[in-house]
């Protein structure tokens, strides 16, 4: 699955309809961006229940400020920004972000040609992402998962583009190290 | 990405034609993202309706400097974990609590006369030497004079630890491949696979890993351990009744219900296959003459079972859900080191005595692992629990020593098996007489659907729970517990 920039944004008619009070148009808007907003929220909050709660709140915040949305940025960027700040609020409030410790001392052989290989890869990716600061993790999602440019990512996170660039460089370097080193080395060095 | 024993499997730079960055993006896009609760958007609609002005439009943006109107709080989702555990518990309770009617016929037969001691030895031998067993599980009984029998599913177990359990009515199948250490749960609707959940590196699965077992597994796999433990409570010379059960030569043993871990009244009857020594049925009779029980039909014992039986060929690759209970295989040294992560002293223990024939087959550990006692979310950076599980096997037999430290230990959570215990379980207190936990008071629990087990708390604030559970008699449980020593690096 790739994200064609032309398909990233919902049509303007739907946005206008939502602003005029068409509740279903607003829900269509939410659904259009839903998978991306979920991916962002889950990577910040690490908890499906909290993800739902935060996205509900973010949706309502978006609804409350819908009339004031003037199209200075893309709708998706605007929703991302609201979701990002809402998730950070949840993170601060709930303090539920789990920092994984280095218990990942895996000792045995991988299983070949088995779906569990996929599972293992995902699990290791999740583990590695968990070890990044949330500011870096979000940028990895925005830029690498969804292909947004630095300018958009900077708008979502609320930092200058230069900061996005340096944070991403640090995040990539750390991820690369985490994902290519044996687990026991990670344990010793983390 | 995963590197095991130095073999780089996936996450090397420039794999195939993809750059490392592209590969990262691809993996991120392919990794699953949790779905919303089913009513997610409906709840948003509700909250929007609450907020909409008289014109039906979204509320006007708040004036600058005015505090924004707080959004109504969302309804909290109930934890999936509790729902799943509840469903399993409900299934188990339903299986044992419904009044059953109708008793499958038992005809007196004339296999060799036997005593409780003979039968115990046959069960023991069966569990030690059987390579595999398969059959269908039938729940049956009588209620108000009407017989009832319900086939709940089928199972195959091997002495390596593999299993395949199909719960026909629920449309769920469970498999565990002990060589790959991969547990799967398949969900079907009208015969079509909907999705599959996969986890690896669990401790040698036992009944405390509910998501990876069915309630029938709890009943049929532990029936043998339970039967043996109950028979061991009897005097060795108690005579047993030779019977023909479902066409097989068998022995029937009746014990008082309290002895079987049940209520104060009634009796429990255990039927053991005279040929294989495997228990064929366990049934409970109340004073009104009503019975409820579980029996195994179409029993096949022994014989090789291909490993392919422990993976179901269902095309669910697109709906494959990775699950993690955070367990990892450890060395003994790593298990000892895990204790250092506790905020107070956590010393995992290992037995210095095990019954003849048992050998250590797995060491597993988890930080903030789930499903061993009540789940409690942990706070930022906190280590809320540590678990070290040692698994021992002897053919079909197995037992676990579970060491668990929790930063908080709410009342009733000392027993790692307590989460889904049913009323049939009862415990007695014993004092440990030797080993590192000498003088501590332990509880011994003997009752379906739990495995026979013993647990004891220790450590500052009794925040460490140590349990011994599995195919052991009461005497063996205590003897293992009496031999516990700290694992040292």
In CATH's first tier, which class of the largest domain in chain A applies? Mainly Alpha
Assembly state of the chains shown:
heterodimer
Query: What share of residues of chain A is helical?
Result: over 70%
Order of secondary-structure elements of chain A: HHHHHHHHHH
**Content-based structural category of chain B:** alpha+beta
- State the CATH class of the largest domain in chain B: Mainly Beta
State the largest interface. Answer: A-B, 76 and 84 residues
Structure summary, number of beta strands of chain A: 0
CATH architecture label name of the largest domain in chain A: Orthogonal Bundle
Low-confidence stretches of chain B: 1-15, 63-109, 213-219, 419-424
Q: What is the assigned CATH homologous superfamily of the largest domain in chain A?
A: RNA polymerase sigma factor, region 2, helix turn helix motif
Describe the structure.
The complex is a heterodimer of chains A (190) and B (489). Chain A contains ten helices and no strands. Chain A has 190 residues and is mainly α. Chain A folds into two domains: 7-94, RNA polymerase sigma factor, region 2, helix turn helix motif (Rna Polymerase Sigma Factor, Chain: A), CATH 1.10.1740.10; 115-189, Orthogonal Bundle (Arc Repressor Mutant, subunit A), CATH 1.10.10. In chain A, helix 3 crosses helix 5. The longest helix of chain A has 23 residues, at 23-45. The model of chain A is unreliable at 95-117 and 182-190 (pLDDT under 50). Helix content of chain B is 18%, strand content 34%. Chain B has seven helices and 26 strands. Chain B is globular, with a radius of gyration of 26 Å. Chains A and B meet through helix 3, helix 4, helix 6, helix 7 and helix 9 of A and strand 1, strand 2, helix 1, helix 2 and strand 10 of B.
